[in-house]
Structures are given as C-alpha cells and as structure tokens.
C-alpha cells in the first residue's frame, strides 16, 4: 500500500496568526524608523556637501548650454565659423559674450571724460538722425520741400536752406529731381541733417526763435516734448561750453524735425550694439528665505534614507521571512543583497547617466521656446534629489516579480505571455515616477524592461520548491 502523502504544510506548527503578523509589522516599522532617524542625523551632517554635489550636473549643464548659445551667436555673426581668437574664451576660459545696447552720445562723453587726450575720440556730440528712419521717398520729398523754400525768408525751411553749404544745396537739387535715390544718397542726406544739427547757432535763427516761444512750442509738440525743449533752452544759458554744445545739438535736432515733419521721422536715440565678454557663472536663485533651509532638510532626509536603506531592506525582508517556512527563510539572505544592489544601482544610474541628457533636453527646449532658463534652487534640486530615489525604488521590479511568483499569484508562463502589457505598464509607471519630460521616462523604462526579463530569469532559476518533502512521500 503506497504511503499517504503528508499534509502540504509540514510546518503547520510555525504558522503565525493575523495578530502576530501585525505585531511583527509594528516591530519592523519601529526598527525601520529608528534606522531612518539615525540615517537622517548622519545625513544632516553632510547635507550641505550633498547639495553642492547635486548642483554639479545642473551647473555643468547650464554652463555648457550658455557657451553653446554664445557659440551659435558668434557663428551667425561670422559666416558660420567661430573666429579662432574666440575659441579659447569659449572652451577653456568659459566666457561668453552678452549683447548690450549703449547710447552713442553717452559712450562718446564717457570716452572724452576718461581719455581726454585721445585724438580719435570725437569732441562733437553724436547727432540723432539715422538712415533707418528715412526712406528714399521721404528723402526725395524733403529735398523738394527745401528747394521750394529757397526763395523764402521767414519760414523754418528757408532757415534750413540758408544753413546748407553750396555743395549741399546742389545735392538737394539733384536729389529732388532724381528718378530714384540710392542707399548712398540716403546716407549723404542723413549726413547733411546731422551736420545741420551740429551747428551750434542754428536754433538762434529768427525762424526757429519764434518756434521756441511758449504758445508755438505747445502747439507743435506734445506736453512732454514741449517741457523738454523749454528745459533745453534754459539749460543752454547755464551750462559750460562742452555741455552747452551738446544741449544746442539736441535742440537743433528737434527744431529741424518740427520744420520738416511729417516727411521726417522723429529723432532717434543712436544706439550701438556691443558685445561684452564675461565669465559664465551659474547661480541658483531662491524665491523665499526659507527655501534654502527646506532644500537642506530635504537633502539630509534623502541622504538619511539612502544611508539607512540596507537596514530598511533588512527589516522588510525580516517581515517577509516571518511568513515563510523555516526552510525558506534562508533565501532572505540571498535576495537582500540583490534588492539593495538594485536600489543603489538605480540611484547611481539616475545620477551619473540620466541627469545630463535630461538637463540638456530641458535647456534646449527652453531655448527653442525663446525662454532664458533661470535656475531656481528649490525646483531644480528637488528634481535632482527625488529622481535617484524614484529610480532606486523602480529597480526593485525583479524582486517583486520573484516574490509574486513565490506566492503563486503569477507564474513564469504568465510573465512570458503578458510581456507586451508589462512593457506598457512599465512605461506608464516610468511616466509617473519621473518629471514631466520624455527623456527621463525613456531612460527609466528601457532598463526596467530589461529588468523585467531578468525577473523572469530569476523566477526560473532562484525560486525554491513549494514542498521539498513531497517527492519523498510519493509512491
């Protein structure tokens, strides 16, 4: 007569009640919290160093982005090739040009003040009529108006005509009768207007003196412009010679415009675009006084969790072992280092291989939107601190698969049959655990997909038998 198969549960006397499971869970949570507290205390001691260390990839990514943007601007201005003399500044010295706009008048006065013996610096203030403000049609219409005022005596146009030299009057006749004006003609026309504005006594002509009277000024100009002209007129009598010359030129410009409007546009500020080279320095910003402290606390907490992670995983596996048979508990010591290694491997992958491509993508996307990135301390460091933690937790996938297989919830056949759905779920979970951008999601989903098949291999080769004594009692 064959032997009777024994009860499936040979270790029924070791079974724990539900209350005993809750008590074991309470102990595990308490010991885990003690480990986390000790880890956080240690983490606080190194929180400042960790924050500075975490800022390294952010600083490096933003610096490379700013240098690449500067290189692109230099290529645009130099025919697609960065000048050799600028390569050292960009590559080794990490300097980048910043385009600023300066007033030529102020630049000239500053150069005259600080380099009074320099002969190349003009002592005549820059005038404010520009080629970009006058079209060929306007220049031709103005030339004809001045020709029509040649025989006048009291009009402001006649005063302008009288102030022209004979060569300039001949040029006006040629421009007024020409079929079409060239760009050179426009430049010469603007040069004539600027020379007229530089004549210090033009404003003293009787035709212009009348325009400076109170009622006429108010009718010709807006309230702000009329107030400014009155201040210019009063300032000329009180200023010294160089300053008075500057004020006279400004007054002449507005008087010439008032005489030739609407064919002449308003005087424009003669801006000059200048590139200034400066070191690329990335400084994180905070929007509140408490934000740096909260970042410091968060860094200490996360570092503490990482430091305490071996103890936490050990407690988790002790809780799992409490529900296992005595002959299965030894497997805890096999799976514990694997689980810890997967966690640390995921965190290391995020820090060393994910940060740089993610930051480059985000910065390039900002540039494509025309947005200048300003690194805010709280947002960037929260992103950099939490991403490794998410990777470490997600990399527990093979252990979870093995555990579910041991419980009989999923079989190896189920894992192989539903792998397409599993990959879809992996991408969805990666989207949840990573920031709202595609690079980190892809860089998490691809390793997790590989780990999924690693989990299948672990289920096949590492899973123990349900009952090692069954074969001994079979007939």
List the helices and strands and how they pair.
Layout: H1 18-45, H2 47-77, H3 84-91, E1 95-103, H4 104-114, H5 136-148, H6 156-163, H7 166-177, H8 183-197, H9 206-211, H10 214-220, H11 223-238, H12 241-260, E2 271-279, H13 291-322, H14 332-368, H15 377-394, H16 397-406, H17 412-417, H18 419-433, H19 438-462, H20 470-473
Helix pairs in contact: 1-13, 2-13, 2-14, 2-15, 5-7, 8-12, 10-11, 11-12, 13-14, 13-15, 14-15, 14-19, 16-19, 18-19
Key structural traits:
single chain, 475 residues, mainly alpha, two-stranded antiparallel sheet, 2 strands, 68% helix, disordered C terminus
Note down, in words, how this protein is organized.
This protein has 475 residues and is mostly helical. It is built from 20 helices and 2 strands. It has helices at residues 18-45, 47-77, 84-91, 104-114, 136-148, 156-163, 166-177, 183-197, 206-211, 214-220, 223-238, 241-260, 291-322, 332-368, 377-394, 397-406, 412-417, 419-433, 438-462, 470-473, and strands spanning 95-103, 271-279. A two-stranded antiparallel ribbon has the order 1-2. α2 crosses α13, α2 (47-77) packs parallel to α14 and α18 crosses α19 (438-462). The longest helix is centred in the C-terminal third of the chain and has 37 residues, at 332-368. The protein is elongated, with a radius of gyration of 40 Å.
